[in-house]
Design a protein that fits this description.
Bound molecules: 1-O-phosphono-alpha-D-glucopyranose
Number of strands: 13
Strand order of the largest sheet: 8-11-9-10-12
Radius of gyration: 20 Å
Number of helices: 11
CATH class of the largest domain: Alpha Beta
Length: about 300
């Protein structure tokens, strides 16, 4: 049985992670506030959710993350100064980016017990309705936002959906991996999934990219979920439980754009290149500079 599609209004963003891979940059600043070109990573992900029609943004934060809350608030003094100086363009863009009054909620994950636990912390703020979940480290770079494609698929399939993309076989142990009925389909029914499978045991090479549409029944499973890989409460384990113990469906939606893992230095640097090259008023000049840098350094081999 497929759960009849109900509108997805809310999105959850787990932003409690410590960002140890970016120390010392993240000593006093959340890793989600590192900038790709001129927008914090978390802003890019919120942009994706808004473009897909999300109306309410639920952040699961932690200690030292207060600046994320400030970022999604009005900065009265800044706006007044910009207005006084006639900086209309900057003012407009600040206003455009800001979710409306009452459209953000914040809760705290009090201890680092894993992604499943972070999602569970949002249960009261989400309530009894389906929701989107976006992992902020993963920037999905494409013309059409990944979550928008998933929303389209959801209107056909209902139930639960997971964004996936193929990875080289020797990297499957780093991710959540799904097994699907037909890997060549853009949208395919999931029959199994596993978090960080041991080498050689993955059911496919399709990894979970960090975009989900989930039914609220997941919270009941997360509440009872025992720690899994890395001794953390894993979302993938609870999703597998929901798949096996209920009549709910899970579909994989293949993401064909480029993925940048901004939780890693390399992914973060490449994201800056990709977003920089396509940014209006910057891309052309950046391309020229990059080309001459590559020539100068002999990087073309
Ligand atoms: C999390 C998820 C995993 C997913 C990955 C994407 O893992 O648990 O299923 O493939 O994000 O980045 P983490 O990166 O937190 O270990």
């Amino acid at each position: 049985m497929t759960t009849k599609p109900r509108r997805i209004r809310k999105a959850v963003f787990p932003v409690a992670g410590l960002g140890t891979r970016f120390l010392p940059a993240t000593k006093a600043m959340p890793k989600e506030m590192l900038t790709v070109v001129d927008r914090p990573v978390i802003q890019h992900v919120v942009d994706e959710a808004r473009a897909a029609g999300i109306e309410h943004f639920v952040f699961v934060t932690g200690r030292n993350k207060g600046v994320i809350e400030d970022h999604f608030d009005k900065q009265f003094e800044l706006e007044r100064t910009l207005a006084e100086r006639g900086k209309e363009k900057e003012l407009d863009s600040l206003r455009r980016d800001l979710p409306g009054a009452g459209q953000t909620s914040f809760t705290r994950q009090q201890s680092a017990n894993g992604l499943g636990h972070a999602v569970w912390c949002a249960r009261d703020l989400v309530g009894n309705e389906p929701f989107a979940l976006l992992l902020p480290d993963m920037l999905h770079f494409s013309e059409r936002p990944c979550l928008a494609d998933m929303m389209d698929a959801y209107s056909e399939t209902g139930g639960n959906l997971i964004g996936v993309k193929a990875v080289p076989e020797d990297q499957t142990q780093n991710y959540g991996i799904v097994g699907v009925e037909d890997p060549s389909d853009q949208v395919s029914k999931i029959h199994t999934m596993v978090e960080k499978p041991k080498r050689g045991t993955a059911p496919s090479n399709l990894h979970i990219t960090g975009r989900y549409i989930l039914q609220p029944e997941i919270f009941g499973l997360l509440e009872k979920q025992k720690p899994g890989a890395g001794n953390e409460i894993q979302l993938t384990d609870a999703m597998l439980g929901l798949l096996e113990q209920s009549e709910q469906t899970f579909h994989a939606v293949r993401f064909d754009g480029d993925l940048y893992d901004c939780g890693s230095k390399l992914g973060f640097l490449m994201a800056n290149v990709a977003y920089g090259l396509t940014r209006d008023g910057l891309g052309d000049e950046f391309r020229e500079e990059l080309k001459s840098y590559i020539d100068r350094e002999g990087l073309t081999g």
